[in-house]
Structure formats: structure tokens, C-alpha cells
Amino acid sequence: MNDTVVTLVGNAATGVDYRETPTGGVARFRFAVTPRRWDRRNSAWTDGSTSFYTVCAWRNLGANLTASVNVGDPLVVHGRLRVRDETLDGQRRTFVDIDAVSIGHDLTWGTSAFKRVARANTALTERPVDMSAAASAANAAAVGSGSGSGADSGPGAVGKPVHTQPWLSEQDESAAPVGAAGVPTGPL
Fold first, then answer.
1. In this structure, are residues 103 and 131 in contact, taking their beta carbons and an 8 Å threshold?
2. b/e string for 124-150 if b means 16 or more Cβ within 10 A?
3. What is the pLDDT, as a whole number, of residue 155?
4. 82 closest CA partner among 108, 107, 55
5. Which of 85, 103, 105, 128 has a 20 to 30 Å separation from 78 between CA atoms?
6. Is residue 69 exposed (0-12), middle (13-18) or buried (19+ Cβ within 10 Å)?
7. Helix, strand, or coil here: 144?
8. Which residues of the chain have pLDDT under 70?
9. Residues near 54 by Cβ (< 8 Å), separated by ≥ 6?
10. Which distant-in-sequence residues (6+ apart) come within 8 Å of 3 by Cβ?
């Protein structure tokens, strides 16, 4: 698929409008991008003409955007460029939209505190349970007493980490320092 993917740096010009649709929630807001250039003649920065875009963010991105962005916030928006022509009141107008893939605060102008959102569908992050309680207890007793074949005999085997962080490999997870909340504190 041939899409034009762009990254824009600017400010939220309007508040975020969030609506539920049959295909999932969507958040929309207007985004202002003003280029700045150094004027050698006046030895000062000057602003160019401002371009406005309508940014659409779907599903989780839209919900998180609604809780995170206010009018005037400096943002970096990355997404697919959509240009559409419409005739309104007999005049032909061109609208430029961005279907956002990711949006974040521009940390050049301030700080931001990230907060991970708990998802309702935990099936993607939890380890599936395939052993009955009796088999699990027997496995724990065998591992605790040292009797066993010496090979890994399941998720309770000693020395094999249980994945609590799906984005880490076994090697990374076993070496990553873990804080009090079970979140890695070292570099990922």
C-alpha cells in the first residue's frame, strides 16, 4: 500500500473531541504547525504562515490522547497524510487530515510523566495456565526436593524465567533489575 507517512511538530489548536463509533472510539483535534526561520537581515527568528491539520486517532490511541492532551500542548504527530477536496457553499475547499499512528509531547518545551494504562484484555500479557492444580503442586514438590530428570519440566522449573514482561526476551528479563512494583528499572 502506498501511503504518505509524515511527522509533524506543532501545537494542539483545539481540544480533543472523542466519540464512540461502531468500529471503535475516535479522537479528533486541530493541529497547528508554524515554521520558524532565522532572519539574517533582522538577526531574529520569524514565524512563517501557520498550516492547520485535522488529526484523527483511533481506538486506544484516541482514548489515551483524550486524557493526555490539552489546547496549546506542543506535540509530535506521526501518521498517514490524507488530502481531500470538498465543495462547500459552491466553493471548492481542500482539507488535510492526518490518521495518527503515534502522538507524543514535544519534550523540547517541557517535561511529561508517562503512565501505563491497564488494558481490559489481559490475555495478551498473561501466561496461559495449562496445568491442573494437582500437576502444579506435584511439579513444585519435585523441583523443591531436587528429584526430576534435570531437564526443564515446565513453567515452574528452576532457572527458567517466567515471562512477566512480554516485550523482553528470556535473556533480557533474567538480567533486568526489577523494582518494587515488578517493573524493570534498568535500560530496556
1. no
2. eeeeeeeeeeeeeeebeebbeeeeeee
3. 47
4. 55
5. 85
6. buried
7. helix
8. 1, 119-188
9. 28, 29, 30, 31, 95, 96, 97, 98
10. 80, 81
pLDDT of residue 121: 60
Q: Which three cell numbers stand for residue 79?
A: 501518521
Residue 2: predicted pLDDT: 82
Phi and psi at residue 33, to the nearest 5°? -125, 120
Grid cell 471548492 is found at 92
Rounded to whole angstroms, the Cα distance separating 127 from 136 reads: 14
Give yes or no for a contact between 52 and 11, defined as CB atoms under 8 angstroms apart.
Answer: no
Q: Report which residue type is found at 2.
A: N
User: What is the end-to-end Cα distance of the chain in Å, rounded?
Assistant: 32
User: What is the rounded CA–CA span in Å between residue 20 and residue 62?
Assistant: 10
Residue for cell digits 531574529?
44
